């Protein structure tokens, strides 16, 4: 045990603990919680001068191929069991509420088109979105309200959350499956309907103009 | 994104399914676009090559049949039917150069785009749901440890508190024949006298309210008087160079400590 | 990974996974389970032929000196934060509070009269001393038990500690101002608080006389 040196260092206000120690600390903090922890939170909890971001790089490598892995969730980090070992965990499996087809589609549209208004979701699905569907997704904390659109009526937009990323094992919204292909195929563009296509939502010609911009903005973080 | 799942049924099966769909009810579809998408499956694998004209005809036939069966149709379906009828006429008739607005081809292309987009969203939704999921395929920590907020209470007392406490006990039933004329007034002389005796023990910064005479805090009038005189006495002592005063902020407690005579 | 050779020994119909795999499995189970897990439970959950006990030995070694350790809890196993990192799981907020009047008075009596018994404290204060007050002072380590009195019942006595002296900046309890000084300082000049009925307690004149003597006697040790 190397206690003395360690504690000596801890006492010094200006000297950060050695990287090996910082790695242990990040390890302990990530193991202690089920929620992803941001680098900022890590740094706040670690001794002065520690660099959690660097410690995370080492720790992530250390857990590669192990039974549990260090994963990135948005701008936070968590430890999760390796997906191939799920079969061992029947006991831990939590029954997730079965999502309706409408809810699943709505979720996918929000994820791929975010930030997206209700009217846009309705246009894509060709059917009005029931309040219950959105409420369910909000309640599960898989979606949340984004910024309002700067268009008449200032409609609210929806975006997906960190919980969503965590649930589906995504580092960021950019890693959504098939996103690139969809974009390349132009299917994420909000193409204004020529003339008089029956619209289910309220007229969004204005909203649509802005969407393009909104979207690129989105997947940037 | 050309991997739209090919329908593997042969046409007859697809036809049968479409017929069944008719008999069931329109509620089985998530709106007219969904119905159109279902109908388009019987046509082509690639949604971009779907014949919108044919699709419109199928849709209109469906609506007619539903009407014949007295199925209650939502307004959405009828609006779509009207629009498709219009589109059909546009596509069939030669374009009228005097007419404004988008061409039948433009409208058809947009409908094809909408269908393709809806199909694409369904495909990615399926891909999303097929991913490993938290709590099903991979798991979070079972034993979590809350960050404890340890509230540590530190009790403090000053030497003055201690002595005042002791004095309080020792004097509480002492007979005091002393009578003040105006017992609601604590004079500055009294305060000065009291503080002179006490400041010898005030080596550290102490709130001047500590020097308030005991028992004067019950009656507000007496408390005001004692506060004023104690404050005035503190200033007097500071003027005499016996104590130092400080206050961190407006209305913050005024603190006092003995001034060490070492300077002179 | 040290797998194949070890597992080849298994000649069961279903071949056990390599030891490296078994270690991953144990790691994932211990991580995700809310309760400590016994070796039997591990074996029950792992594929046929697996040897959880051996995998545990490897896993335990792997976590030696890490931020979390594999520890035995009763006859079961769990992953726990390394003891030296417990501080990361706490956020300390210190709140200072003024000692209660009862505690100050009790403390003063002990300081001036030590060694003093509870009965004596009560006699001087004229009220009974609550257990909590004494416990609080003991816990703060401002007082401790002194020698027992050689009187019937052999009551315990209380004395002040070095911590007490340090806190009040005293070299010894003898440096506490005596009654005369208190009087000179005007501290004995206090009138009984208005509104309180003068108490006819036990004669204090005696008590006071006795004090002087008690005090000198007291500061012997």
Automatic annotation (TrEMBL), chains A, C:
Stretches of Acidic residues bias are at 203-221
What segment(s) does the record annotate as region Disordered? 185-221
Fetch the InterPro entries from UniProt.
ScpB_csome_segregation (IPR005234), WH-like_DNA-bd_sf (IPR036388), WH_DNA-bd_sf (IPR036390)
What keywords are assigned to this protein?
Answer: Cell cycle, Cell division, Chromosome partition, Cytoplasm
What biological processes does GO assign it? Answer: cell division; chromosome separation
Record bears the keyword Cell division: yes
The record, for Pfam families, names: SMC_ScpB
Q: Which SUPFAM superfamilies match?
A: Winged helix' DNA-binding domain
Instruction: Please identify the protein, giving its name as recorded.
Output: Condensin subunit ScpB
Organism, scientific name: Marivita hallyeonensis
From TrEMBL, chain B:
InterPro entries linked to this entry: ScpA (IPR003768)
**Name this polypeptide is given:** Segregation and condensation protein A
User: Where is the organism placed in the taxonomic lineage, from the top?
Assistant: Bacteria, Pseudomonadati, Pseudomonadota, Alphaproteobacteria, Rhodobacterales
**Highest taxon above the source species:** Bacteria
């Amino acid at each position: 045990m190397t206690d003395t040196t360690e504690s000596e260092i801890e006492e010094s206000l200006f000297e950060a603990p050695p990287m090996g120690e910082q790695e242990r600390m990040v390890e302990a903090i990530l193991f202690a919680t089920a929620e992803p922890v941001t680098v900022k939170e890590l740094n706040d909890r670690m001794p002065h001068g520690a660099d959690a971001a660097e410690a995370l790089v080492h720790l992530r490598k250390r857990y590669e191929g192990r039974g549990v892995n260090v994963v990135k969730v948005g701008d936070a980090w968590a430890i999760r069991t390796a997906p191939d070992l799920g079969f061992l965990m029947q006991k831990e499996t939590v029954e997730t509420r079965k999502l309706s087809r409408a809810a699943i589609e709505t979720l996918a549209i929000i994820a791929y088109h975010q930030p997206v208004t209700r009217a846009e979701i309705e246009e894509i699905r060709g059917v009005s979105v029931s309040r219950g569907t959105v409420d369910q997704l909000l309640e599960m904390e898989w979606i949340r309200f984004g910024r309002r659109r700067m268009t008449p009526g200032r409609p609210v937009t929806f975006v997906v959350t960190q919980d969503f990323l965590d649930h589906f094992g995504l580092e960021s919204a950019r890693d959504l499956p098939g996103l690139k292909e969809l974009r390349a195929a132009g299917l994420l563009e909000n193409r204004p309907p020529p003339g008089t296509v029956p619209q289910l939502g309220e007229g969004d010609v204005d909203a649509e103009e802005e969407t393009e911009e909104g979207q690129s903005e989105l997947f940037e973080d | 994104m050309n991997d739209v799942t090919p329908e593997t049924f042969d046409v007859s099966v697809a036809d049968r399914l479409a017929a069944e769909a008719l008999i069931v009810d329109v509620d089985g579809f998530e709106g007219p676009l969904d119905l159109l998408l279902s109908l388009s499956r019987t046509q082509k694998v690639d949604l971009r090559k779907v014949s919108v004209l044919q699709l419109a005809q199928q849709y209109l036939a469906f609506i007619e049949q539903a009407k014949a069966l007295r199925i209650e149709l939502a307004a959405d379906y009828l609006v779509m039917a009207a629009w498709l009828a219009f589109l059909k006429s546009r596509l069939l008739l030669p374009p009228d150069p005097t007419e404004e607005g988008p061409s039948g081809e433009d409208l058809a292309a947009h409908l094809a785009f909408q269908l393709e987009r809806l199909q694409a969203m369904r495909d990615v939704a399926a891909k999303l749901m097929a991913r490993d999921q938290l709590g099903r395929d991979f798991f979070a920590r079972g034993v979590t440890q809350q960050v404890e907020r340890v509230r540590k209470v530190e009790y403090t007392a000053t030497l003055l508190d201690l002595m005042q406490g002791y004095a309080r006990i020792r004097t509480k039933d002492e007979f005091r024949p002393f009578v003040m004329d105006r017992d609601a007034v604590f004079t500055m002389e009294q305060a000065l006298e009291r503080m002179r005796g006490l400041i010898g023990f005030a080596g550290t910064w102490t709130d001047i309210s500590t020097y308030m005479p005991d028992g004067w805090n019950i009656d507000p009038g007496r408390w005001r008087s004692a506060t004023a005189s104690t404050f005035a006495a503190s200033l007097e002592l500071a003027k005499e160079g016996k104590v130092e005063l400080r206050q961190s902020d407006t209305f913050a407690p005024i603190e006092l400590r003995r001034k060490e005579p070492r300077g002179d």
